[in-house]
Description:
Largest sheet: 5 strands, antiparallel
Strand content: 5-15%
Shape: globular
Strand order of the largest sheet: 11-10-9-13-12
Number of strands: 15
Amino acid sequence: MSIVTKFIFWSLALLILVAYAAINAGWNNQNTDKPDYIYWQNEYHNIAADLATDPALKEKTRDAPPDISQVTVLQFSFTETDGTAQQRVDRCEACHAGLENPQMTAENIIRDVDKVNLTAAQVPAYLEDPSHKSTLDLVYTLGAHPGKTPGFAKGGLEWAVATATNADPSASAQQLDYANIVAKHPFATYGCTTCHYGSGRELQQDKAHGQAEYWLQPLMPAKYLDAACAQCHEAYNGPAISAQASFNTQTSALTDAYTKAKDATTDPAKLAALTATYKSQYAVIASAFHASLAKLTSENDAAAPKLTLTEYSNSVPGLPSTDDTRIFKAAYLPDMTTIQRGQDLFKENACWGCHKIDGISKGNVGPELTLEGRIAVFSTIEHQLWEPRYKVANCVMPYFFSQKVYGDTTTGKEFWVDKLGGMHDVSTLVPADQDDLSPETWDTLNEHHDVGNGKYYYFVPLKSHEDDVTALTTYILAQTGQNYAQATSDRLARIDAYNGADPPTVPVSAESGKLVFEQSGCYACHYLGNPDNDKIGMGGVAGPNLSWEGSRHSRQWIDAHYVNPQAFVPKSIMPVFPLSDSQRAALSLYDSSFIPTGGRAVSPNEDLPSATWIADKIEVPQVRYMTR
């Protein structure tokens, strides 16, 4: 074969290869729901050209070639699972080309693509219609970032898009706060993945959005975004939220007391006096609330206020509608209320007793969570909360958010059992929305476990706990062992101070023990009711019912049990909580006070196990001298 022939042959081969690559790329872009940046920029240029009013700009925009927009984020490096830092490079705007173009509102894109004129209020319903999914993808990918336009519209917690005006007129203060947040986090400084996660270097959607097989930190759903905020901001519960919570608590207690007193009297004179007292006390609380918010407002930057006060007239509960009291309400979006709720749940459900987080908790029963946000994705954490056994069959974590359902193929009946042993038909449960759980989570929970004789069980995720799972997932995702706004030495000093701190000393009384019980998350596992009527109570089912604890065990046994639960009950899953001697004494005094009428307290010599019993791992009887 001559040199000329070889040249022609290889030239043709190269041309065929290039043509194949081009055709394949074009096919992929037009026949997949995960196209790359070239496809999206072509779409953007066409829409932006249609929206342009200058003919020259129209032509220039439509003919503009695709390019790669890149931001190198210097201040916020990405930390790998081994602790090494990698420079953050974001090319997100290569696909999301309209992020900073205020003309790319949802209304404009819908009008250009679908030839439909909508108001901002009509946008959410239109985009959530399954038949408009392709338009939603266009708006979501090419639209301006919320906060870059005068308004925005939300579809639940799953998405938000920029609009010309607010979809909800009452959201103007919220939108102001949102715009302030966006303005304080410019893309040129923060990039995109600092807040949204995902793989910023990629230029193809499935890889950039970080499916688990490509990237450890996939794109984070909007409902978990507080976890990203927590990488810089440590104060979750801001002062305005605290003031609002205090106001709500005080007015609720006042209203309850007023309602009970009002219902207990028929004397018009007494009723009038009660009403007058109620209104004056309500006004005092409202005035104090207003003053606290006004003080916060004065402390904020006047050019970019974080806090917006809205005065409104509200009918006082229980009074005729003509008797209005002027109160004030805060709109304070920057506070991270989702992650704050997650932090509260971490304590309320006694997660801290089993899981260690440096500087926050010392639990040693379950896995350490100090770096969980660095080594686990949101779907894994959420799955674990709904279904604790899906990875480890003998996991002792309680089912806080899912209900166990029992079934019998011979009768065709399915039922669940409440905390007091009552049986209820499965139809009384309201399951979580299937779309809010990963398919893997839903399938694992609904897997039927055969226990023989035609009997089986499975779990139902409860709709009432959807927000709780979101909040707790967010809090755990935020645990990365680092904070961009805090020096490493400061973090280590805080951890050392926590580890060196002694548990508090409290008065040894039943009242003090009640507070310890409530504040230590005991209700998460233990039910506690009236000794004579346990239907009046609350709590979980992972541990024993404590409604008659004083007639089952002595105070001394309970106190010693807190020191080492497994020494007394070898199969116990109860962790060793870091309580002081006085806290244990107060708690045992409170627990032992629950004795039914006709029952009696158990003395130490009857109840406290001997060293021999403990050495032989003899389980202490669960019921002694109990009458009901």
